[in-house]
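Task card 7
Instruction: Convert sequence to structure tokens.
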Amino acid sequence: MSVPELTDAERDALLAAHPEWSLSREGKAIERHFKFANFSEAWGFMNRVALLAEQQDHHPEWF
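Output:
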């Protein structure tokens, strides 16, 4: 199951509501950069996101 692509209007509305996110990949994706105090904090965050993503059958790319 793939995640449906946002329309331009949906994308623009979400970006306006969440200014910490930005367009990437020639407008086909959105991204946000996070910084954590340490590895443990980052790992905990990734685990929480992974559980939510799995429930929604959406698997973000991690870099």
